[in-house]
Specification:
Strand content: under 5%
Number of helices: 5
Number of strands: 0
Structural class: mainly alpha
Distance between the termini: 28 Å
Largest sheet: none
Number of domains: 1
Helix content: over 70%
Shape: globular
């Protein structure tokens, strides 16, 4: 489980907005306000629930323990956490959008791009928070 604070909630919100909007655009679906909002809420709620269940920080820390002391360990940890959350969120979104029929095909058609977009977004958020801490 993660540490709950305003940063965590804002990160979750930004990632929900970015992942849902990217998935919608990548799938070629229309940007209809009520469905976009609904799926953004699904992404946000999924991320919150996943954080309550999956100890991604601990998993990422354990998997990168051999990188202790390197300056780039944090970026590998961010990648692992992103991999877990984007997988959970995008699978949930695919299920909600398809009702299960063709879910894996719908999910896979955008997954790699969503992983990249989610990772870049997560790194930008990390760097922004780190910069704000230095002020």
């Amino acid at each position: 489980m993660c540490e709950w604070n305003i940063r965590t909630i804002l990160n979750d919100l930004v990632l929900a907005l970015v992942i849902n909007t990217s998935a919608t655009l990548l799938a070629g679906a229309p940007m209809v306000a009520h469905t976009w909002y609904t799926y953004t809420c699904v992404a946000f709620a999924t991320n919150i629930v996943a954080q309550l269940i999956v100890p991604t920080g601990s998993i990422a820390s354990a998997l990168t323990s051999s990188l202790e002391g390197t300056s780039w360990r944090i970026y590998v940890q961010i990648f692992i956490e992103n991999l877990i959350f984007v997988t959970i969120i995008s699978l949930t979104e695919a299920f909600v959008q398809t009702g299960g029929a063709g879910m894996i095909a719908a999910w896979w058609s955008t997954y790699i791009w969503l992983m990249l977009i989610g990772y870049v977004t997560s790194v930008i958020l990390f760097l922004a928070w780190r910069a704000s801490d230095k002020k």
